[in-house]
Amino acid sequence: MENREKPIGVFDSGVGGLTVFRELMNELPKERLIYFGDTARVPYGSKSKETVTKYSRQIVHFLEEQDVKAIVIACNTASAMALDEIEKEIDIPLIGVVRPGAMAAVNATKVGRIGVIGTEATISSEIYSNFIHSIKEDAKVIGKSCPLFVPLVEEGLWEDPVTEEIARRYLTELIDTGIDSLILGCTHYPLIKRTIGRVMGDEVTLVNPAYETARECRHLLEEKGLLNPNSVKLSENAYTFYVSDEADKFRHFANSILPLGILGAKKIDIERY
Hints:
Elements: E1 8-12, H1 18-27, E2 33-37, H2 49-65, E3 70-73, H3 76-81, H4 83-87, E4 94-96, H5 98-108, E5 113-118, H6 120-125, H7 127-135, E6 140-145, H8 149-154, H9 161-175, E7 181-185, H10 193-200, E8 205-207, H11 209-223, E9 239-243, H12 247-257, E10 266-267
Parallel strand pairs: 1-2, 1-3, 2-9, 3-4, 5-6, 5-7, 7-8, 9-10
Helix pairs in contact: 1-11, 5-7, 5-11, 9-10
């Protein structure tokens, strides 16, 4: 198989990265995609940098074994904590979700005040703030961790009054800061984008790093001459899914958000890598 026909690897700590996978399906319909969800060790947001880097390195080794031509880290925490180190260790392109989201937020803001919501690890790492300031030095960045959003999303409570109430509790203080763009700094959050939008109001532009990452992936593949010129049929295993645990639960969640049904996900022992 020539390089252009090889698949793109995508990984996340669990199921949230499927929002990135969905955007990649839309942006790159000719590409083969392999997804790995680390469902046995989720969440990453409360773990140390050393642990997240170790887990990410194991997954990258697994994806390299699948002969991928590029890897997308569809996880804000892993992008924040592990990308820079692992990028030095491999020869294939590695893309995270932080940089594309930061750039889009800078382009969207008119007043230079940008909000970021995410896991505790993503917010405390200040990775978005650092990227934003490298682009726009005088930007004001306000971060807010929203830890309950992930379990609410995974329970399917996307349009539930409970989710809206929690969103109002988390986000009211951000409204008062006068931000005009808000980064959804966790891959689960696009699934409650409408709820977040209602709370924040029309004056605040919501930035979805999943969408921006898919666009950046296309640009990178174009630049390196790696775009697949041929369409891939579903019967040819265009999309393959792996998990480290709870394959049935993963399949159920994936079928609720992806534009096509998946038959299942293969469970693997990621600790071997």
